[in-house]
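_Full entry_
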Amino acid sequence: MEVYIFFFILGLMPVLWIFSLLTLRKWQFFFRFLWINALAVISYSTLIIFSGLSFFGHDEYGLKKVFLFLMTIGFHTIIGFTIALYYKYIMSKK
């Protein structure tokens, strides 16, 4: 069951990302938010891909690293989507 949830989130990532960008495009801190997120993605992508993460043990094909990378991007997208929903909720109250 967990595998299906992972692939569902993986498939929804582009949709959630585009919805988040469209929701936040009128926000005064949009470009700052975009740059901070880009730097965060670049930094943890570099850390995951190029570091010798030793807590995996033996990973002959590097699949654990690939799935960790995809899961990290997925969680990052979900957090950004949650921030966009919160912003939309705050703006609807005004």
Observations:
- The two ends are 41 Å apart (CA to CA).
- The longest helix spans residues 63-93.
